C-alpha cells in the first residue's frame, strides 16, 4: 500500500515513499506499464494546474496557459514560468504608487502572495492524494501479479 504524505516547503511537495522502486519495477516488467503509471500520476497532479488556470482572469491567457506539470526523476511539480505568473503569484514589494495599486488589486481579487496555485492545491489536495494512492496501489498490484506469475 502506498504511503503518501505532504512535505517540502509550505507543504508543496507530495512524497510517495518508495515511488522510485515502484517505477523501476514497472519498467523491468513492462516499460509501457511505467509510461502509463507516469501518465496517470501526471494527469492527477495536472488537475491542480488546471484549477489554478481557471482561477486566473481571462484577460491573462498566457499566464493561465503557463501552468504546467513536469516530471524529473521521481518528482512531479507544477510550474508557471510566465512573467504574468511571477507578478500574479508572488509580487508583494511595490516600488512605485502604481505598483502599490496593482498589489492591492491582486490581493483584493486573488488574496495574498501564492495567490492562485496554493489555493488550487488547498482545494484539490485531498482528491489528488487519493488519486496518487490509488495509482500507486494499482501499480503495486500489477507488480505483485507479474511476480506471482513468474
The description of the largest β-sheet is: 2 strands, antiparallel
Strand content: 5-15%
Principal-axes shape call: elongated
Q: Could you give the count of β-strands?
A: 4
**Class derived from helix and strand content:** alpha+beta
Computed Rg:
19 Å
Which strand order do you get reading across the main beta sheet? 1-2
Number of helices: 6
The percent of residues in helical segments reads: 55-70%
Mean pLDDT metric: 78
Q: Give the domain tally.
A: 1
Question: Which stretches are poorly predicted, pLDDT < 50 over at least 5 residues?
Answer: none
Order of helices and strands: EEHHHEEHHH
* Distance between the amino and carboxyl termini: 21 Å
Amino acid at each position: 500500500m502506498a504511503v503518501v504524505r505532504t512535505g517540502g516547503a509550505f507543504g508543496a511537495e507530495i512524497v510517495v515513499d518508495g515511488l522510485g522502486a515502484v517505477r523501476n519495477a514497472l519498467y523491468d516488467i513492462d516499460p509501457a506499464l511505467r509510461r502509463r503509471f507516469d501518465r496517470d500520476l501526471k494527469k492527477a497532479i495536472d488537475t491542480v494546474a488546471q484549477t489554478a488556470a481557471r482561477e486566473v482572469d481571462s484577460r491573462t491567457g498566457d499566464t493561465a496557459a503557463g501552468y504546467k506539470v513536469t516530471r524529473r526523476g521521481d518528482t512531479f511539480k507544477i510550474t508557471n514560468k510566465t512573467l504574468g505568473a511571477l507578478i500574479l503569484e508572488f509580487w508583494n514589494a511595490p516600488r512605485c504608487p502604481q505598483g502599490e495599486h496593482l498589489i492591492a488589486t491582486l490581493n483584493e481579487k486573488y488574496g495574498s502572495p501564492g495567490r492562485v496555485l496554493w489555493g488550487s492545491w488547498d482545494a484539490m489536495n485531498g482528491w489528488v492524494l487519493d488519486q496518487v494512492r490509488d495509482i500507486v496501489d494499482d501499480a503495486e498490484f500489477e507488480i505483485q501479479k507479474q511476480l506471482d506469475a513468474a
